[in-house]
Amino acid sequence: MKSSSGIDIREESIEILTEYSTIPISFLVESIADVDAPKLPGGSFTELKQNPAYLKDYDSEPGHHPTEWPDRFDLSNWGIFVAREAAGLVGGIAVAYGSPEIDMLDGRTDLAVVWDLRVSTEARRRGVGAALIAKAESWAGDRNCRELEVETQNINVPACRFYQDRGFRLKRIDRYAYPGFPREVQIVWSKPIFPTSQ
After folding, report:
1. What is the pTM of this model?
2. CATH architecture assigned to 8-192
3. What average pLDDT score do residues 183-194 get?
4. d(Cα 124, Cα 127) in Å, to the nearest integer?
5. 186 closest CA partner among 172, 174, 198
6. Strand pairing of 111-119 and 47-56?
7. I want to staple 118 with a disulfide (CB 3.0 to 4.6 A). Which of 25, 60, 193, 194 is the partner?
């Protein structure tokens, strides 16, 4: 399916994960969201400058690289989508659904979770991420989900802003979610969606 911006988004099988993983998920941490003072409703945060800035790469953490997902999870109910432009692969999104081993799903059949979203550095801020989120919402609605969740961290302020701009609202904060990274705080965002069958 080609979006109005010329981005071609297609659902793929898990065989795409090697190519999918060539899209970098790393980002420069230049500021941190102050989770001690979120402004509600919505969960807006004050930014605290991070000096020095540093690079964060989730793929480098054991078990998190996309090619490792099939060893950790049953992906048979997941949606995996890639975005292509004339120049090639520019983005991807993985949506977890119907996977009891994913804690964030809480055993629910009306909830889907954005497990991974990545956009190539040169394609960022051009609507690729928004098009992928829209596809995830549609896909989850087709499975009669009523809610879409996504996890970010306080060190990823651009992601927090991105999800807020797409209508996600702060659901919960967990300061102790990452024992190996005590300075990182889990932020979970949620958005109501509408089941296709209703």
Report:
1. 0.92
2. 3-Layer(aba) Sandwich (3.40)
3. 95
4. 7
5. 174
6. unpaired
7. 25
